[in-house]
Amino acid sequence: MAKTHLMLLFLLCSFIKIECSLSGFDKITKLPGQPKVGFQQYSGYIIVDKTNMKEKAFFYYFVEAERDPASKPLVLWLNGGPGCSSVGIGGFSEHGPFRTNGNGLVKNKCSWNSEANMLYWESPAGVGFSYSSEKSKMNDELTARDNLVFLKRWFMKFPQYSQRELFLMGESYAGHYIPHLAQLMTQSNKKQRVFNLKGIALGNPVLDYVTDFNSRAEFLWSHGVISDSTYNIFTSVCNYSRLMSEFYRDSLSSTCSGVIGEVNKETSRFVDIYDVTLDICIASVFAQSKVISPQQVINNIDVCLEDETVNYLNRKDVQKALHARLVGVDKWNVTSNILDYDHLDVEKPTISLIGSLVMEGIPVLVFSGDQDSVIPLTGSRTLVHGLAKQLGLNTTVPYRVWFQGQQVGGWTQVYGNILSYATIRGAAHETPFSQPERSLVVFKSFLKGMPLPEKFS
Questions:
Q1: Structure pTM?
Q2: What are the TM regions of this chain, as residue ranges (predicted)?
Q3: What is the DSSP code string of 231-246?
């Protein structure tokens, strides 16, 4: 009945030729335990594929800017995995307007909706509250197609944002999701301009399997986590890219098994590989790299006993307020245990797609939390520098420190005023969680197209 009502309303608006938004049906009145705020929130479903036998729908959470949303850009955020929730991680644990706290929510002082309208969605189907009535194996290409359909249909629901300045952002395996999606968006624009894409930013992203993965050994060794002898076998006997290739193909050799055994022994289960300097007790919402660091090979991250985000989003009153429902699963999880994804896609580099997007005139920022050993800064920096050289881009901002307040926030370099690299000092794999103030500075500068601050403020 509700779907029929929506369709009739949409047809009526089209017939009388007025701009008509269907977003009112998804408006959130108030989330349980939420402090009073002055901005609007929306959540619900966008059907991306429907036949007589199948229905596939993505769940989204949209937060308008705190002040003057009509003048602010739209930022689309995706988390990685594959299979991790952008709503649970990005929306409620990193840079959304609230963070969970016991039975309620507290205001996030470094929320990114202070600067932009923020859209989080759970992709692919099978992640979080998103669902598909028919199970099928997913890969990067199929995910990109579904994401493109989602965005086009989301703009039908929110037409006032259809020509807003648009930025794509994400982290970890979003280094695959976003370049593939952006490529389809630029191709779609050549037929009919639909997306006002102004920039792409990727945090600790998987861009090149060999470079990114094999940077781990040097990072662990340079931080004193593994010994000289283990470093030597980790680089000469069985490096990490070989180890993971064998693992994906169910052919883990005794040689590689022995090497990773030594690495795990010295790393210890009491060190968080997502931030090698951080004390343990990290919520499970930050175990984003099921493919990058499968549990069968790498020791699980030690987590706190309570996971407030999972508890909160599994409350029936919260799900009702979010217009969410569980389909095909018993509970909401941060990382999907039902998604069937082609793990071999991680071996396909996306750095060339980044190059193509830069050549299309789309600014790209790659940023790294400098304490992450999963996708270390050394690999990302090498890839960006190599891409700049390949594209013939000269350095326009030389490698230098940048500041957040009166402290060094990290280091940065810019090529051709269109390709940028930055580190976030003291940050983990999920930079907005571990260094929220510094991450917000990077976010602001990126949206404004400005270099990161080079002086105290």
A1: 0.90
A2: none
A3: HHHHHHT--HHHHHHH
In three-state secondary structure terms, 375 is coil
- Distance (Å, whole) CA 8 – CA 397: 54
26's CB contacts (< 8 A; 6+ apart) are 42, 43, 44, 62, 157, 323
pLDDT band with cut points at 50, 70 and 90 for residue 23: low
Which tokens sit at 136? 């099928």
Q: How far is CA 141 from CA 144, 204, 281, in A?
A: 5, 21, 36
- Which of these, 21, 20, 117, lies nearest to 67 by C-alpha position? 117
- Domain 22-209+307-457 fold is Rossmann fold (3.40.50)
Amino acid (one-letter) located at 330: D
Query: What's the CA gap between 276 and 428, in Å, rounded?
Result: 8
- E strands, 68-196, are 74-78, 98-101, 104-107, 117-121, 131-132, 166-171
Return the pLDDT at 303. Answer: 38
Q: Give the start-to-end residue ranges of the domains of the chain.
A: 22-209+307-457, 210-306
User: What amino acid positions are annotated as catalytic residues?
Assistant: 172, 372, 429
